[in-house]
Give the backbone structure.
Amino acid sequence: MIQENHAGLGIRVLASFLDFLVLSIIVASFTFIIKGSFSLSFANGVAWQSIYTLYLMVVPIVWSGYIIGKRLCNIQVKRMDHGNVTLSNMFMREIVGYYLIGSLTLGISIVVSAGMILFREDKRSIHDLVGGTYVARN
């Protein structure tokens, strides 16, 4: 099913950058309040990756396919039947489609996904295919 409103690579990368920026500021602020010092070293650890993954999985379910960066860029994750995403969609998309496949392919799947978004008419990447989702421009 090809639609005119699928989001391209540029807007998706911008939304991801904005998510990282906003979430980093929030976590760094809490770290500063708790520890009394400012550091971005938390972004290298398992705790950060866990928080970020939970954020990517849970917030779109609660916020109808949006996360902060996607909301700012006016794009949204949707199921292929145009409904709101579910926990199973987001688990398959983020955990299996992005992290598991990305780890097993040593990151090659991320490059392939970028190419898929650039060259496929429906602009769906590997994690979109696995999760049964697409990213729509609103």
